[in-house]
Amino acid sequence: MDFDRIRKEEREKERIETIRTRLRYYGKDMRRLEAEKERIQIYKDRLSIGASWSSSEAVKGGGSTTEDLQVRMIDKIDGCKRNIQIIELENRAMTKAIQELDQDKQFIVHHMWVVPKADRISYRKCGEYLKMSKDTARRRSDSALLEIFSKLYLIEGREIDVR
Length: 163
Fold this sequence. Notes:
The chain is mainly α.
């Protein structure tokens, strides 16, 4: 038995599973990012609609209710912008690693691991789209995942996340 080969295969399987899991979370974060951008647009629309309303009546706090609503909308917009920055910072390394892959590997990673489970395609459909066999698509997927792993982690030592 070739123990080195067996150990290498086991390590690669573990690394592939690690990146698959990280890509699922990356996909969820990208969907959250889009939702935050849409939410900002909604708040800006509400702010522009509410800006034309005016009330000359002062409330107990000294400001008008319209001013208070506008301030709350601006605070919500700022909160969404902070959320976007956090998501972008947390996923910067993964985004860069995916962008450095070739087009075929990017397609495989996006359509098989990043998108929601209901929208994922099979190895067979992926192979048909890229004009390759199912087994070749599987090997390309594993190769892409290991390539992402090597860009995100230090291989020596205890495989430390370098983000």
